[in-house]
Amino acid sequence: MNAMTEPTHFDRLSNQHLDALEEETIFILREVAAAFERPALLFSGGKDSLVMLKCAEKAFGVGRIPYPLLMIDTGHNFHEVTDFRDFRAKELGADLIVRSVEDSMARGTVRLAHPGESRNVHQSVTLLEAIDEFRFDALIGGARRDEEKARAKERIFSHRDSFGQWQPKAQRPELWTLFNTRLQPGEHFRVFPISNWTELDVWQYIEREKIALPSLYYTHKRDVVERKGLLVPVTELTPPKEGETIESRDVRFRTVGDITCTCPVESLAATAADIVIETLAADVSERGATRMDDKTSEASMEKRKKDGYF
């Protein structure tokens, strides 16, 4: 190995840091498998769930992940993401369960205020129905503490009561990585193995492990309009408003979700290494820069989590 390819001191420190995060995540994933009877891994096809899936693959082996993958589909997801979700689950030989907000709407358990309302917040209802259907006692999610203030408050093993609600003032201590997994009938846990990762950690890990992602995460041309400081993608679900000018820009998505509330950012980053550099310079969180539904107090994350949201 010549001097040009030898790892630098920074590279070695970065790898040690990522190794520690990976080790913690694998430990938590194995702890869930040992402590619960009917766990599931929430899998959207997004970057955070793909990082978790990579760690699960390392923890248990390809085709040996001991719990199913679960996605709650709003029916308004980007097809690039859902197609990749299906491809990755099949590639790993994992059992994929998809439950739809549209099915909840048909049952009458979800009612929209108007046809154009975002379905994102209503995923809580469909998720709780899936928990009841399959009697899940633990759901593994890809939320991170650096994403949003309410998520920063949450434990790695987050207890939910028999109504699926999160009670911030009734959380259990997690000293010395010891987790209290006791449950009463009807209760369950939300488990967040990558809680201690940051957006930068995620992208450095994606780069190091060469994790494939949906194409939306990298630069591409897209028609957008500027609205309230965000770049809103122009789609059938998010048409331009009167007076707005449609522009074709080079963009990428920092996070992906329901089309009606997820915005891209302007970017020429074509690789994970490019995104690592961009992330180092970012001064706004990914949710703050890209999510329309986080801009209003009525849709506050803490309230949604108390109601059963991810």
Break the fold down into its secondary structure elements and pairings:
Layout: H1 9-35, E1 39-42, H2 47-60, E2 69-73, H3 79-92, E3 96-100, H4 101-107, H5 123-134, E4 138-140, H6 149-152, E5 157-160, E6 188-191, H7 199-209, E7 220-227, E8 230-233, E9 247-252, E10 265-266, H8 272-281, H9 286-290, H10 301-306
Parallel strand pairs: 1-2, 1-4, 2-3, 4-6
Antiparallel strand pairs: 5-6, 7-8, 7-9, 9-10
Features:
about 300 residues, 4-stranded antiparallel beta sheet, Rossmann fold, 6-stranded mixed beta sheet, 2 domains, alpha/beta
Structure description:
This protein starts with 8 loop residues before the first helix and ends with a helix. With 310 residues, the chain is α/β, with parallel strands linked by helices. The strands form two sheets. It has a six-stranded mixed β-sheet with strand order 3-2-1-4-6-5, with helices on both faces. It has two domains: 9-200 and 299-306, HUPs (Rossmann fold, 3-Layer(aba) Sandwich), CATH 3.40.50; 214-295, no CATH class. Helix 1 (9-35) packs across helix 2 and helix 7 runs antiparallel to helix 8. A hairpin with a 2-residue loop joins strand 7 (220-227) and strand 8. It is built from ten helices and ten strands. It has helices spanning 9-35, 47-60, 79-92, 101-107, 123-134, 149-152, 199-209, 272-281, 286-290, 301-306; strands at 39-42, 69-73, 96-100, 138-140, 157-160, 188-191, 220-227, 230-233, 247-252, 265-266.
